[in-house]
């Protein structure tokens, strides 16, 4: 493997000059820089990132923490962040906390120990003391701890749109309330609740402990056992909605004639369900992209127009909700 | 933040002794080691992984390369690998190549530059010259370049099972042939082809350029336009099968009465499709786990019983294929 000395020899400069080029500090003539870069390329010389990050206490790595990689919403976020970071020459260290506090703490430690340049955290525990002890910039994604840079979408409006989509044609509505410790889940819940309270409908609330697929399957069975008269369900995400939809069909109910179901997120699979799922679209890919942009701006100490970015949501009517009369 | 000197002071030993404990080299009395560990814990001292990896040329990071994080099959693989690695004190650097050669090369370079302890590659380009130039151990996952350590599942049998599931009750079968550069796709294709050639059915083959969701949607529309008489479809993965299923229903066909459809992979969402998708189950989570185990064995220089591990597959009959007479 080529060394920095080989590069210096090939370029006809000193090791110190190569080092200045590598670290982008001190004056180097443009023509010299080009010659050094050409020598590095020719010799297939990879600067030692570890040594460089030790020296400069920085790296081109970004740590991304996701709560559940098996929920397709989060890979979409990751893809958005990844594309933006790659474009700027950064790479992701990725951690999946599996909604467990311990794993989250371990990944944060891994990120710190490997001197990432910054962290994007779609954490279930945004108020952890550990986040304030991190030297690197942190941007929260899909989570909004007060005072911290964050990218999220407008959950309160999303919840209202979800409830409005079914409230006029369902009379016994079940509102699924997502995990209590997640402000995003609570935002959409309160938005929906506001609409239901003002409408002339019976409704009941079931609280769910997680957004996970496994819990959603159990929940779906329980829901129909406890509230057989339910004719409208507002799910707290698409995974839940898919599980509920499946269970409704299994019980011989017609969707949307007997029961309307609306999800939340608009993961790619929702369109492929049968009937295709009506849902509230969060712009997941763009949210990931915005989080990466915000983080890079902070890393580069650029002036920031906004540090708590909230993106718009949208009602996507497919076939699990009925058309409003006014739409007809 | 505590330093190595603080730890030495608190434990009543020299800095050199703490360093020996940290690097696990040279003789340290067991009682002394315990005292040092306790002091580190008490002072919340994190050894500098970057410095350590520079010195020892190793780290506790593993690089994982996936071709498409938005295909739910791959997060399952990742979860299996992750759980096993976490249990052994390793963490993942994750890269999503998006089926692009350039991104794959860039991630490999990132992995090398950050001195990962090893790489798990679910690569689309297993024959890349770059893989032979890597100093760290590499285990291929879901891919099987000859002579290299790998974990895959038995695709040939999987393809045969898929064809056998529909061949007796469909007369005009469409066999979707996955990407030509992926041996796993070709294995399942050839398995299915073998069965179809021996059976008394018409069949046609459509080759697909990728496993991605976007391509699958276009493919589904094309398939029914070109071969309207198709009454049986063997998809090369579940994403394709879901797209095909959706398009069939949209065209008013009854599944499985008018047309049988079988997928491949058994991603979690397949069970939630309507009708629930019949498919060939690959044990994705366990494959990830086995790949991590194999990689760790190689890193630890343990004797290996097997370096090309092939795991069994299974036919899961749900509602998009019909029961065989012999089953009834």
From TrEMBL, chains A, B:
InterPro entries: HTH_LacI (IPR000843), LacI/GalR-like_sensor (IPR046335), Lambda_DNA-bd_dom_sf (IPR010982), Peripla_BP_I (IPR028082). Gene3D superfamilies: 3.40.50.2300, lambda repressor-like DNA-binding domains. It comes from the Bacteria. Pfam families: LacI, Peripla_BP_3. SMART domains: HTH_LACI (SM00354). CDD domains: HTH_LacI, PBP1_Qymf-like. Residues 2-56 form the HTH lacI-type domain. Keywords: DNA-binding, Repressor, Transcription, Transcription regulation. This is Ribose operon repressor. The lineage of its organism: Bacteria, Bacillati, Bacillota, Bacilli, Bacillales.
